[in-house]
Amino acid sequence: xxxxxxxxxxxxxxxxxxxxxxxxxxxxxxxxxxxxxxxxxxxxxxxxxxxxxxxxxxxxxxxxxxxxxxxxxxxxxxxxxxxxxxxxxxxxxxxxxxxxxxxxxxxxxxxxxxxxxxxxxxxxxxxxxxxxxxxxxxxxxxxxxxxxxxxxxxxxxxxxxxxxxxxxxxxxxxxxxxxxxxxxxxxxxxxxxxxxxxxxxxxxxxxxxxxxxxxxxxxxxxxxxxxxxxxxxxxxxxxxxxxxxxxxxxxxxxxxxxxxxxxxxxxxxxxxxxxxxxxxxxxxxxxxxxxxxxxxxxxxxxxxxxxxxxxxx
Length: 313
What we know:
By secondary structure, this protein is α/β, with parallel strands linked by helices. Helices cover 37% and strands 21% of the residues. The chain is built from 9 helices and 12 strands. The strands form 4 sheets. The chain has a 5-stranded mixed β-sheet, with helices on both faces. Strands 10-7-11 form a 3-stranded antiparallel β-sheet.
């Protein structure tokens, strides 16, 4: 957008994006080497031009209003498109790529992230991938710390997940359906089986991802979370859960999608239960995705297809 008497300055959009990222006008000003009064005036001018309050100011910093959240999505799109135009027609180098993704602990999400980074044509980038708790994924995307999140829902948790997303102004977009599998070490006695039942798992340690203070059955990362287990260990990261699979012959329940390159010591075996796992991505209902986020989703869909699963979107 060109700056005019009633238009929006491109520089103001860049300032606004940084203010939103830092949750602070002064921090954004420091980062961009702009005087704090200049940055404050720019934000006031931007709000005057669009005719809406975009920021809530407090002694602790700033937060986005509902209008501000929607405006941020469009601002990112405009700034990204201008950068692409400058790159193509003015011979400028690719701009710094930005993307944040929050996800449950899925190796396929990491695999797609690796492909996206390798395929990036940017000389500079700042990407983040947070494998974290279900509640935190929703909060990350709501607060725009991440542009999108990856999580699952099924018949058991659907109503709760959908309500949490609605309350946060987010939507769930399905990617694929997976049949439940267990993940175990290649040395586990069950590793050679074609299928396993819940009875086969009775004497093995069940490994689950800890959900912290929000440790509701409905927010569990694993299906069948209400079933009791004589031996259960909660962990906080994927490296630990795989180490316990190897060291204790433990198991966890997931999608069956696992990367031989990233996790060579772990195998997936179908679990004989009448359940399915719907994997999808979440984002703001009113904010279009940036090109970089679309690239990540394209890589994610490619990984899913290579596993022989059918895409839902």
